[in-house]
């Protein structure tokens, strides 16, 4: 890793931690620079604006969650619908780890940013929509495999996958509000019971 790459990485990691643990508007460039131990000139060398940094933070978070959460949870070593339960366990472990570090549950980083910025920044809204679409695709893949295996009959796979995503986001919001990770284990497994039939059924 070159010194320049290391500096960029420190800025990105500092911003990711601060924005996720607090909020986008609650964190300023000066604080990010202090955490990363860089000067503002270095910050603006890599990121022309806080908005551009935030787009990079979303990419960084997505890559981290894909590598450490989604890919292991949805690995095809167990039957399709069992992967949903494993996904819930990964969510629970991730939120517990965050709570141990920060003193409270942090919820979904993408949901947090969507609630804060989706109505005020179109570029960030589109970026977050793409992230949610990628997660929805994971649910669609599981549902298609389960349907092919005969685990259920006729189903609107895209609509069911979107409903599953919406349900999980709601569970994470409730758990964050209550500051109680147990709600993820209590409510999360019901995601596997969601079914939406095609409109003509």
Structural summary, described in words:
This protein is mainly α. It is 72% helix and 0% strand. It folds into two domains: 1-48, Orthogonal Bundle (Arc Repressor Mutant, subunit A); 54-193, Orthogonal Bundle (Tetracycline Repressor, domain 2). The chain contains nine helices and no strands. Helix 1 (3-21) packs across helix 2 (29-36) and helix 4 (50-73) runs parallel beside helix 7 (122-148). The mean pLDDT is 94.
How would you describe this structure in keywords?
Arc Repressor Mutant, subunit A, 72% helix, 201 residues, elongated, 2 domains
Which SSEs are present, and which pair or pack?
Blueprint: H1 3-21, H2 29-36, H3 40-46, H4 50-73, H5 80-102, H6 109-117, H7 122-148, H8 157-178, H9 182-187
Helix pairs in contact: 1-2, 1-4, 4-5, 4-7, 5-7, 6-7, 7-8
N→C terminal distance: 57 Å
Give the percentage of residues in beta strands.
under 5%
Q: Given the helix and strand composition, which structural class is it?
A: mainly alpha
Q: Which class of the largest domain in CATH terms?
A: Mainly Alpha
The radius of gyration over CA amounts to 19 Å
Overall structural domain count = 2
Q: Please provide the ordered H/E string of secondary-structure elements.
A: HHHHHHHHH
Number of β-strand runs: 0
The biggest sheet, with number of strands, parallel, antiparallel or mixed sense and barrel status, is:
none
In short:
The protein has 201 residues and is mainly α.
């Amino acid at each position: 890793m070159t010194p320049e790459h290391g500096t960029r990485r420190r800025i990105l990691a500092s911003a990711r931690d601060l924005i996720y643990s607090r909020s986008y508007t609650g964190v300023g460039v000066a604080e990010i620079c202090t955490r990363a131990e860089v000067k503002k000139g270095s910050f603006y060398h890599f990121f022309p604006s806080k908005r551009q940094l935030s787009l990079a933070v979303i990419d960084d978070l997505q890559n981290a969650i894909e590598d450490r959460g989604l890919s292991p949870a949805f690995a095809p070593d167990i039957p399709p619908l069992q992967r949903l339960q494993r996904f819930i366990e990964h969510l629970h472990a991730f939120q517990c780890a965050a709570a141990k570090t920060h003193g409270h549950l942090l919820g979904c980083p993408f949901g947090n940013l969507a609630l804060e910025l989706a109505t005020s920044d179109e570029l960030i809204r589109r970026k977050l929509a793409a992230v949610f679409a990628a997660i929805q695709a994971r649910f669609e893949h599981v549902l298609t495999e389960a349907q092919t295996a005969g685990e259920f009959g006729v189903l609107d796979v895209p609509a069911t996958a979107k409903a599953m995503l919406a349900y999980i986001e709601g569970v994470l919001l409730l758990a964050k509000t209550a500051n109680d990770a147990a709600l993820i284990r209590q409510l999360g497994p019901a995601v596997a019971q969601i079914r939406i039939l095609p409109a003509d059924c």
